[in-house]
Design a protein that fits this description.
Structural class: alpha/beta
Number of strands: 8
Strand order of the largest sheet: 3-2-4-1-5-6-7-8
Number of helices: 20
Helix content: 40-55%
Number of domains: 3
């Protein structure tokens, strides 16, 4: 979403860093460019004015002329102020002293509210909680069934009006308020410690929708009321947030579709305008493309500094530590096989798209970020390896011409593609043997040939394995 804005900031910062000293005129010129970049990203004009003014005041007070690296000092100030307009610090969920903790989700139709409910339930499960989803969206056809399917995928139970018919005071099938009240009592009976209520939306704000969600809030007494906002709606999202906040007294916002191609102004405007934090963010269609919102990490991503912490946390959640450790050992010892490579590809794919992971890494060249590595290309590599026998995976040296033809036919690729994969894999093995030798040499205190330093072979170009 923020690619265009990141590219603009990258150019501005590159010019600032290249200067040995910065005059007031140079700083003003950079701030003018930042102002235009933010406005082009559809950031609220009041937010832009306040942001630029705060940066200007801090730059004047920082005495840039005496700074060792004045350009870097400006970048630091911009990063800190960007973090501030995004909320400063992450929202910490405080659980109710008497369970359950009730979370009410509101928003317009199409914002991704029902999917967000399931994603949020999965997130609570990862925190060690036992959530229950309440299907109180009785306006949209199939909304209840959609929540059941998503809840099943998340491993979380869903309660709707039809599940409450045996209660002493069952709700009417078309009564979302009564359903919410009865579902809360059911959650207490079942011992659930978190309840997430999915409410109905409309295509636009109207009195009936607002009255219904207000009455649901009255009977459920939520500990947290979150507004689900489609980040691709730009400034309309801010106006929507203000309208809901006037009725519900929001505790925070959940941004969806941050993986879209819109300009991202909503994310940069809503906290400053609404005075409420962004609590969570959804960055894809999968249930695990969802996490607590970290303003500092998002600011770093927007400014082209990557988000390594989020990448590490995602890896810790999704990847099998034992499998990864075993592969690392085999790499270092030069015993890494195509079977290991296939296993590692499957581990990495648990973390989402390759393009998404590249966006979290700092310093990745723009042409690489924009390459749009298609997961189908990764699947082709997997298909080639799966078409090999176990002996061929473990010892690729035995793969002769006839075997290559058989593997190509079995995986639906050309023989040249098989050759390319095997060549690149040999390069990787050679590289890792070099690293292993360098590591052993360093441990023994030996010196290499160049200036007493041990040198490692260059990294092969793996892009050929994906084409």
């Amino acid at each position: 979403m923020f690619d265009a804005l990141s590219d603009r900031f990258e150019g501005i910062f590159s010019r600032l860093r290249s200067r040995g000293s910065l005059s007031s005129a140079v700083v003003d010129e950079a701030l003018a460019e930042i102002r235009v970049a933010l406005l082009d990203a559809d950031v609220n004009i009041k937010v832009v004015r306040a942001f630029v003014e705060r940066v200007r005041e801090r730059c004047v007070g920082a005495d840039l002329a005496r700074s060792i690296s004045p350009g870097q000092q400006v970048v630091k100030i911009v990063a800190e102020e960007m973090t501030a307009i995004l909320g400063g610090t992450p929202l910490k969920i405080a659980y109710a002293s008497r369970p359950p903790t009730v979370v009410l989700l509101a928003g317009l139709q199409g914002s991704g509210k029902t999917t967000t409910a399931a994603k949020l339930a999965r997130w609570f499960r990862q925190q060690g909680r036992n959530p229950l989803l309440v299907a109180a969206d009785l306006q949209r056809p199939a909304a209840v069934e959609q929540l059941r399917v998503l809840g099943s995928q998340a491993g979380v139970s869903v309660v709707s009006a039809s599940d409450l018919l045996e209660r002493p005071d069952p709700p009417a099938p078309d009564d979302p308020v009564g359903t919410s009240r009865a579902a809360l009592a059911e959650a207490r009976r079942l011992g659930r410690d978190v309840v997430i209520v999915d409410t109905a939306g409309r295509l636009a704000i109207d009195a009936e929708m607002m009255d219904q969600v207000r009455r649901i809030a009255e009977v459920s007494a939520p500990d947290y009321t979150f507004l689900v906002i489609d980040a691709m709606t730009g400034q309309d999202a801010v106006a929507t947030a203000e309208a809901f906040h006037a009725v519900l007294e929001l505790d925070g916002v959940i941004l969806t579709k941050l993986d879209g191609d819109a300009r991202g102004g909503a994310a940069l405007s809503v906290k400053e305008v609404l005075g409420r934090p962004i609590a969570f963010a959804s960055t894809g269609e999968r249930l695990d493309d969802f996490d607590a919102f970290h303003p500092d990490r998002m600011a770093d991503r927007i400014l082209g500094m990557g988000d390594v912490l989020s990448l590490i946390e995602k890896a810790e959640r999704e990847m099998d530590a034992d499998v990864t450790a075993k592969a690392a050992t085999r790499l270092q010892e030069g015993r890494f096989t195509l079977e290991d490579f296939l296993e590692q590809m499957q581990q990495v794919r648990k973390m989402g798209s390759f393009s998404g992971m590249l966006s979290l890494l700092p310093g990745v060249p723009k042409e690489v970020r924009d390459a749009q590595i298609d997961d189908r290309d990764i699947s082709r590599v997997e298909a080639v390896i799966r078409s090999m026998t176990l002996d061929e995976r473990r010892n690729p040296a035995i793969i002769d011409g006839s075997r290559r033809s058989r593997i190509a036919a079995g995986s639906g690729v050309e023989t040249s593609d098989v050759n390319k994969l095997l060549q690149q894999f040999r390069e990787m093995q050679r590289m890792m043997r070099g690293f292993g030798a360098a590591r052993r040499s360093a441990r023994k205190g030996k010196k290499g040939k160049k200036g007493g330093r041990v040198t490692a072979p260059s990294l092969p170009d793996f892009s050929g394995m994906l084409k």
